[in-house]
Amino acid sequence: MSGSPTDWTSGERVFAPPSGTVDVDWLVPAVLERCDGTHPAQARSALVIAWSAVRDGETPPRHDDLGRVAAEVVEAARRAFRG
User: Any alpha helices (H) in 1-83, and if so which ranges?
Assistant: First the structure.
């Protein structure tokens, strides 16, 4: 990926991840929309932590707004894409 995670509008990431997978880079804009002042790298890091917890059968951390939003976004993606 070139540039930043929000470069998707240029066309290279038009479609969602394949069913059965979760691509945290694809989820970054969903976190940015809900967490004002968050940088893409922060959103991606929170998503990686949340997804790793879910994948390991644990509850994602929700200690702050960013962690809570990342956990909610990952859960929604997991349900939608059966990741």
Answer: 24-34, 40-55, 65-81
> Rg (Cα) of the chain, in Å, rounded?
12
pTM assigned to the model: 0.75
Number of domains in the chain: 1
Give the single-character DSSP code of 20. Answer: T
Print the domain residue range for 64.
Answer: 20-81
Confidence of residue 31 (pLDDT cuts 50, 70, 90): very high
Domain assignment present for residue 52? The answer is: yes
Cα–Cα distance for residue pair 28/32, rounded to 1 Å: 6
What are 37's two structure tokens?
């002042």
